[in-house]
Amino acid sequence: MVKALVVEKDEESGKTRAAVKEIGLEDLPEGEVTVAVEYSTLNYKDGLCIGPGGGLVRKYPHVPGIDFAGTVESSDDDRYAPGDKVVLTGWRVGEAHWGGYATRARVKADWLVPLPDGLTTRQAMAVGTAGFTAMLAVMALEDHGVTPGEHPVLVTGASGGVGSVATAILANLGHKVACVTGRPESADYLKSLGATEIVPREELAETTKRPLESERWSGCVDAVGGPMLARVLGQICYGGSVAAVGLAGGADLPAKVIPFLLRGVNLLGIDSVMQPYDNRLRAWQRIAKDLPMEKLDAMVEPATLEDLPKLGADILKGQVRGRVVVNVA
Ligand code: NDP
């Protein structure tokens, strides 16, 4: 039997309900590789898929969990054999395909990545989709010439999963890191991850008519989007870049093009879901090398499948700090 968090939908009321249940191995979707899941995690999208669906879930009943790490149990694909340790993020697993909130997951071999050397399955999920995406954002900034120097890199939504991991990686690479947070009580936590400056959310929440302000940030990892991203674009140093990762503050971008034209600012889109395999390997290798594991440990809140309905609602309200690691086994 497989223990899983199953979300069901009442077709009449349209309401969803998540509960831990036992299902059969034969109920799992088709795929070449069956993985004994050890750890999964909680991301913003998981909050949507555990709860209202957010237009992401195709059909019910559904097993959410957009990422997992574990051990291959059986494989019809030559690339994987029983006993191999693997990680999965993206490919709409946990949304369109059943995901990692179950003791077994069956997936396409193409979606898996071998567990990187130097990481345990628990550490890989402490990183999870949020941390993997933070690394992609840092790599994009580097590819566009953002190097450690006088001006800090700004991280928005800093207490969240993407923000926490981005802060720890950037600080470890020698950047000054300015963290935007709406939670003043997170200041010590963010400094422990390497933040050199805390920027209250209100400071960047106000809109301004000025398309350019003083040059403050060499780059930015942005998990918030919306009016804050528009404001930040006008504060980026000449030739700097913003990696747009998320939309915790809204999907609209009420911005002017002036920072692009007069300061050569770059707005870089970051997608973790459909990343090609080679770049996935590169990002995981960089995580193993550039993310200090003691800082990763400080971000982790442990959880079980039973905790997820409440935690899923919390993350949608912006009330989860750092990374939730779900011990599935
Ligand atoms: P979290 O909920 O863990 O973090 C988001 C953080 O944003 C919060 O902790 C909070 O930080 C801040 N925040 C929340 N609401 C607001 C608001 N209204 N205005 C300003 N700041 C706000 O989510 P994740 O870190 O997992 O994900 C962050 C974003 O990135 C999400 O939108 C997610 O969908 C997206 N994402 C995108 C991926 C991609 O492939 N592009 C992959 C993974 C995530 P604080 O309290 O410190 O202010």
From TrEMBL:
Which superkingdom, per the lineage?
Bacteria
- Residues forming the Enoyl reductase (ER) domain are 15-326
Pfam family of this protein, just one?
ADH_zinc_N
Know the name of this protein? Acryloyl-CoA reductase
Annotated source species: Litorisediminicola beolgyonensis
Q: Which gene encodes it?
A: acuI
